[in-house]
Amino acid sequence: MQLENKVAAVTGSSLGIGRAIALAFGREGASVAINYRSHPEEGQEAVQEIEKSGGKAISVQADVSEPEGVRNLIRQTVKEFGRLDVMVNNAGIEQKIPFLETPLEVWEKVISVNLTGVWLGCQEAASQMVSQGDGGRIINVSSVHEDLPMPTNSPYCAAKGGVRMLMRTIAVELAPHGITVNNIAPGAIETPINRNLDEHPEQRQKLLSEIPLGRIGRPEDVASMAVYLASDASSYSTG
Ligand code: NAD
């Protein structure tokens, strides 16, 4: 097992990619704090799934765009499991609207979850890890759209681009503390965020034509990368 005796918190982990990461961490021996925003039953299901495979987990409500929510997620994790070794900032939203029609409220909402939420998660987790004094791992789930433009998705692309520079900057600042910071930037992954593809088969076909491997990714494809970045095997990978 690659994550034995490690403690991890994963934001937005009641569904989708976050859930797959939390379950993979549990299978690899980590104790995991699941985070949900508004559906406690989904958080609880993920906890039960980890417990079924012999792991330990708790479920914590938190809106990652709120400082108190993120603080509480870390506080509950440490209260339950004694420490924090791995923080995964995964929660994200998108709302596709042509740029000229995008209201300020949509910009603010997407930035508050996808960029401010990650900044808060990095800062709270790093403070805890620095106080423990023996390093840690921060992993942000970004997107290919940290680099690749996506018309109609300007707040999302701006947030993910911001997460890229946030990661690179704090990787340098936190390196003296033995804390590594990395992003995973997936292409299209089969999760509820892409449910519109079921209603638009022509969009699915176009997307597939742009993917060299010829298939949409699975949440587990991202989870295996997260396991590597959380494990001792990645101790010299940062930024
Ligand atoms: P999803 O919609 O299936 O899951 C997102 C999760 O985040 C949900 O559990 C949701 O409840 C949670 N969440 C949303 N707002 C929150 C908030 N304010 N506080 C706490 N939790 C909140 O999406 P997903 O595809 O699993 O996406 C996970 C991450 O992966 C996101 O950051 C997304 O941008 C990124 N991503 C997804 C894809 C893809 O194609 N699915 C591709 C690249 C990157």
Describe the structure in your own words.
With 239 residues, the chain is of the alpha/beta class. The chain is 48% helix and 13% strand. It is built from eight helices and six strands, in the order E-H-E-H-E-H-E-H-E-H-E-H-H-H. The chain has helices spanning 16-27, 40-52, 67-81, 104-132, 154-174, 196-199, 201-209, 219-230, and strands at residues 7-10, 31-36, 56-61, 86-89, 136-141, 179-184. Strands 3-2-1-4-5-6 form a six-stranded parallel β-sheet, sandwiched between helices. Residues 11-12, 14-18, 35, 37, 63-65, 90-93, 113, 141, 143, 186, 188-189, 191-194 line the site of nicotinamide-adenine-dinucleotide.
The biggest sheet, with number of strands, parallel, antiparallel or mixed sense and barrel status, is: 6 strands, parallel
Q: Numbering strands along the chain, what is their spatial order in the largest sheet?
A: 3-2-1-4-5-6
The number of helical runs is: 8
Ligands in the model, by name, code or SMILES, are: nicotinamide-adenine-dinucleotide
Helix content: 40-55%
| Number of DSSP E strands | 6
Mean pLDDT, all residues: 97
Work out the oligomeric state of the chains in this entry: single chain
- Class by SSE composition: alpha/beta
Low-confidence stretches: none
Radius of gyration: 17 Å
Which geometry do the CA atoms define?
Answer: globular
What is the string of helix and strand elements?
A: EHEHEHEHEHEHHH
